[in-house]
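WARN retry 2 of 3 for item q-0093 after timeout on previous attempt; input resubmitted unchanged.
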Amino acid sequence: MSHRPVSPKRLAANRANAARSTGPRSPEGKARSSQNARKHVFTASTFAVVRVEDLQEIAHLRDDLIALYQPVNSQELFALERAALAQQAILRGARLESGLFTTCLDESFDNGGKPIRLLNPVIAGDGDIEVTRPRTATICWATASIA
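OK item q-0093 returned
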C-alpha cells in the first residue's frame, strides 16, 4: 500500500481542524474522557462475591492442583493458579444458575402455594399422570420465562 504525499493545501486544512479540536472542555466531558483507556478489574483473581463464596475456596482449589500436578517452575505454577481461577468461575456460574432457577420456581407460586399461572391441561397431562408440585413448578417457571 503506497501513501501519496499530502498537498500543502490539505496539510493546512488538517492543521486548522486540529487546532479547533482541543478535546473536552466541561468538567463532565473531561471526567468521561479520562476513563477512555480504563480497563475493568473484574477478573476472578480480584473479584469475589463476599458472603456468597467461601474465601478459602480458591486457596483449596489451588492447593489441590499443586498437590496433584506438582509444578516445577513458575510457569507451571501460574498455569495451575489460572486453572484454579477457572474452576472457581465454573462453580460460581453453577451456583448462580441454581439460585436463578430456585428463585424462579419459588416465585411461580403465590403465598398459598397455588400456581400463579393456571396450567393448560394438555401441558399438565390432561389427567393421565399425577401433576406433582415439582412438575407444576417447573411448568409454571417455563411458561413464565417464555411469556
